[in-house]
Amino acid sequence: MKYIIVLGDGMADEPLQELGGKTPLAYAHTPVMDELAKISEIGVSQTVPQGMSPGSDTANLSVLGYNPREYYTGRSPLEALSIGVDMNLTDVALRCNIVTVSEEAVAYEDRTIIDHSSSEISTEDAAVLIAAVKEALETDIYKYYVGTSYRHLTIWDKGEVVDLTPPHDILGKVIGDYLPKEEALKEMMKKSFDILNNHPLNVARAKQGLHKANSIWFWGAGTRPRLDSFEKKFGKKGSMISAVDLLKGIAVGAEMKVVEVEGADGTLHTNYEGKAMAAVKELTENNQDFVYIHVEAPDEMGHQGSTVNKIKAIEYLDKRVIGIVKEQLEQLGVDYRMLIMPDHPTPIRLRTHTGNPVPYMLYDSTKKLENSWEYTEEAAFASGNKVENGYETILKLFQEQ
Length: 401
What we know:
Alkaline Phosphatase, subunit A
């Protein structure tokens, strides 16, 4: 038996008037998931523990079977693991987003945050800008490291785990009330605007109709993570397939195999087919027991407030990931169990995460259940199945019924 989690990041949502009262998941054309729902178990999972921030960090730890209350030490330290930064016990890691703020002639504090991803900036472009920030601002205390797309890293020697605001939580808002209280962090953010706003690369991006990546933004502070080995914990050899440093970092911490897929970039136009085929290869050729296929696109489209593109992301996930994995494994005669779910909702209305329960669907190729439901938020709640502790959802996947 092989085991798969297909994670549509931020896929869950709220009913939208523009979709006739349906959610993007319910509205999207998803024939593969619709077919599977008729022969699967569905329900909801409380992936984000009550009182904890509904981030992809806590939620994905939960989906992977790690209780966030026990294992979570911050988001950025997990990303540090992914890019090979070996933190000291006294280090604090900070996510260093490269964001778009408004350019009017006002003080930095009075600017508005426009885009948390700077038009989904490429890693290549971002690396040039982070290099400029690094040259001007790096000291023995603050070190800068390039990550992926808009997501980068700062290590603060002998730092503090300070309270910082995620930029995607305040899109369209004036930033003054959300800047760090720590003066050194705030000053670096202010100076970054002067360094980046008229950087030749940003001038060229603006001419192309792209948002300038004109400020850094610190958030997600945390200390060195300590995760148990996934294989020792569950008795399964696991592989992670994701474009996102956070997920790769979790995998490194859990001693899972990290699989790199060419063209996987965390955007709407990621290499879906490449991820699907990499998963099949891990299970059938590389003798892995478990794969975690993480697709970031629904979450990004939720943050952008794009209903049309969130629907597209869900449809791509259905056809170009789930459909391919199902077809390939069936052709090869492989028995498998597949858990399909989001980590958290990212409602179009809010453009940020919530901690509400998410719908899951559990399919077993060897046991066809008979149901009349579809895989939607409404049907999942109506099923009566609920996993109160989200980190126990994976036990349903591994437990042979």
